Amino acid sequence: MGSEHYRVLIIGGGTGGIATASLLRRAGVERIAVVEPSKDHFYQPLWTLVGAGVVRPQATRRPESNYIPRGVRWVRDTVAELSPETRRVQLLSGAKLSYDFLVLAPGVRPELDAITGLREALATPHVSTNYSYELAPKTWELIRNFRGGVALFHMPSTPIKCPGAPQKIMYLAADYWRRHRLLAASQVIYGSGTAAIYGIKPYAMVLEQVLARYGIDARFKHELVEIRPEQREAVFERANGDGCERVSITYDMLHVVAPQRPPRFVTDGPLADERGWVSVDQYTLSHPRFAEVFALGDAAGTPNSKTGASAAKQARVVAANLVSRLNGEEPSARYDGYVACPIVTGYGRMVLCEFDYSGNATPTLPWLDTFRERYDMWLLKRYGLPLIYWNFLLRGRAIPFVARETVPSVSHTRLHLAPARP
Predict the structure, then answer these.
(1) Are residues 162 and 285 in the same domain?
(2) Domains of the chain: total
(3) Between vectors from CA 35 to CA 31 and to CA 41, what angle results, nearest 5°?
(4) In angstroms, rounded to a whole number, what is the distance separating the alpha carbons of residues 149 and 139?
């Protein structure tokens, strides 16, 4: 098969990839291709509400073709190998693509085999996860059919996309059982590999009150290592003064989160850092060795939480800096580590956590007190954010009320062609 060449090649047609492609097209960049194997595009943040019986799963899925920007080629294939030294990408089909600039936004994959027995447990009637389009409805079946006993909710210590999701569904389940007079007959346990309920203290103080309200037994520094589905038993490793000890918890229902990693062409390739994520400058989002390579979203090795809002902010920085390089200029846009994590704390309640690399709160709507549970924030989660996602973010349009990086237009009179590598 021959090789096709593109000015900008984007790997991944999720949030970060499509938003970046749209912004680049609006800036006048041509000869862009997006490599994405899936025919569907998912708004994954709503899977929490699918698992809580609020949203139908079909509402979170739309055709990928509807969001490939006009003038952008969609390559429906999977990457097999990256060769940044020659600026080539090998696809599983055997096709080869070459590029002047590469944007990596491939997302992450669940490592189901990282926890012994996890695959088998997910096939039983007692275990589910909201990190799957197919399984989120099963979570709702478990919650509404629960009649008391031990409900175990798991959170790994390793990086995952939307790290607030494991506790969101726990709060919704507890609220559902409270409303149906089942909470008193239930023991809700949060088995978390993290050291606290949340890493930013002002928000942690609010969430600690939520834990207390539902009587949730939060067990921190508990890393899930094995599930024994026949015994309905989850085995955790807990650090103590002499090392680690194993603790077993018998459950009647379990919501589990598999550890997550970038695709193997990243983790096993030349662009990865020592942890297996795409190596990037945390501010410019460019690769430290290959100036023509950028990365964003869940697979990027930035030291902050991986959320859709992070990817949206990063897309503007990547697009602005890539256009600067196209114009023969040094990148000047900076990503400050902005994270937005909408934590639903019950039906009709939500806390909007927003902060940057420094851990400082960075509220988008400073006139609202978002350091408490609010009904209007619930409405934002349920209706506002999906509308913004489908109609503004993926289209590269300005998002109402949100400050954004300005993406310059490409200067065709100063168009800079990155030098080819020998």
Answers:
(1) no
(2) 2
(3) 115
(4) 16
In the structure, what pLDDT confidence band is assigned to residue 3 with cuts at 50, 70 and 90? confident
| Residue 297 shares a structural domain with residue 255 | no
126, containing H or E segment? none
CA distances from 77 to 47, 102, 297 (A): 26, 16, 20
Q: Could you tell me if 150 and 277 lie in one domain?
A: no
**Which residues does the annotation mark as catalytic?**
162, 341
pLDDT tens per residue across span 219-254: 999 999 999 999 999 999 998 877 789 999 999 999
CATH of the domain at 88: 3.50.50.60
Same domain, yes or no: 284 and 231: no
- Per residue in 94-112, pLDDT (tens digit) is 999 999 999 999 999 999 9
Question: What's the pLDDT at 421?
Answer: 45
- Going through 203-268 in order, the beta strands assigned E by DSSP cover 217-219, 222-228, 233-240, 243-250, 253-255, 260-261
Cα–Cα distance for residue pair 3/377, rounded to 1 Å: 49
- In this predicted model, what pLDDT tens digit does every residue of 284-305 receive, in sequence order? 999 999 999 999 999 999 999 9
Give the helix ranges, DSSP H, for 235-383.
Answer: 264-267, 308-326, 375-379
Q: Do 308 and 290 fall within a single domain?
A: yes
Tell me the whole-structure pTM to 2 decimals: 0.94
Domain containing 72 equals 3-108+262-336+382-393
